[in-house]
Amino acid sequence: MATRQKTSEDAGHARYTYRLRVSSTARTALLAEWDRCRWIWNECVAKSRAAHAHNRASPGDKLTCGPAQLDKMLTEARARTPWLREGASVPQQQIIRDFAKSRSKALKDIDKRLPMRQRAGMPRPKKKREALPTLNYTQRGFRLKDGRLHLAGGIELTVVWSRELPAAPSSVRVYRDVAGHWYASFVVATEVQPLPATGAVLGVDWGVKETATTTSDAHDLPHPQHGRKAQAKLTRYDRMVARRKPKTGQASSKGHREAKKWRAKTYAKIARQRQDTARKWAKKVVRDHDTIAVEDFRPKFLAKSTMARKAADAAIGATKTALIEMGRKHGRDVRLVHPAHTSMDCASCGARTKHALPLSERTYTCTACGVVSPRDKNSARVMLVRAGLNPAGVEGLRPPGALIPEAA
Ligand SMILES: [Zn+2]
């Protein structure tokens, strides 16, 4: 059975983010650290591209560009470049790790894509004027003393403690957003906060019109139209960015950078609203159910997907993440179900239709057992079955032969 189980034994963690007050000395130091990290990232990109080109030209002699090779590259680069050695090693090692992660994720996506014609999604160079500074420190790269954050390399920052940090953090990310504000985001191990057992289970299917269709009508989540109003803005900024785009070889203008900043701010706002909706929904679902079977949705990187599809994918992604996190926080059993054929199987008897239903077909009719049910509700029940849970008694299941009033 293609399910992965997340149980309460998983050590959870949460991020606690605070504004930073950054002196001009500290800012200069942070930006210098970022310059070095950015340089390393770009070296990684170059190395990875060179390896790819080499492997293409001579497939018999494969070059690899995994974490081990990249670590070696960093050690060598630090040995021969005093400028790199002036920087702390922790954030430099972390950016190598981030690169390796981002690269292996992209490679997996490419493997799945057929035919393999492009390498979209592979990590790209970080440009000086465009990439926002982000520095990651593991435990040995920072400490908190007298309420101040001390980073490796002697950088001292004042944290605005807007809420209490519940435990000692295991790592911190220091970053600047598009508006120019600096933040520290601490990772803290969290303890499971159990909720009372409910005896209820829930199946969740993701979709475009309804972000989540579930086996309980009270827990369906319609697609939030956050993008709607912001969409007009985005389109305007998109055009502005395109119009102000510099010619190849020319430096980007102030107007171009500004338009990009506005666009980024709008995106960030939509993402925040999305996350807020997702968390509220996840909280309700987790409170009301002990076990939740959910489609393990992975967005496809289709070049031609519509704006609506992209918005739906982003909403699903945020909602799925919120559900997994909330489940972990409260010790609920959230099971991820492989999405293959979930809309073709009958939740009642397990028969599979010969052809995928066209998206316009909203009703699932089983030719084997005669059950008739709304398409997405059937899929949600299939999640339960696939996760080894019993859908019997879940509301909304109609006996064979019963007719469903056509939705207007
Ligand atoms: Zn059936």
UniProtKB/TrEMBL annotation:
Domain Probable transposase IS891/IS1136/IS1341: 186-297
Pfam family, one: Cas12f1-like_TNB
Keywords associated with the record: DNA recombination, DNA-binding, Transposition
Biological processes, Gene Ontology terms: DNA recombination; transposition
Domain (Cas12f1-like TNB) ranges: 321-382
Molecular function terms, GO-annotated: DNA binding
Similarity-based family: In the C-terminal section; belongs to the transposase 35 family.
UniProt name for this protein: Transposase
Biological source species: Streptomyces azureus
Lineage: Bacteria, Bacillati, Actinomycetota, Actinomycetes, Kitasatosporales
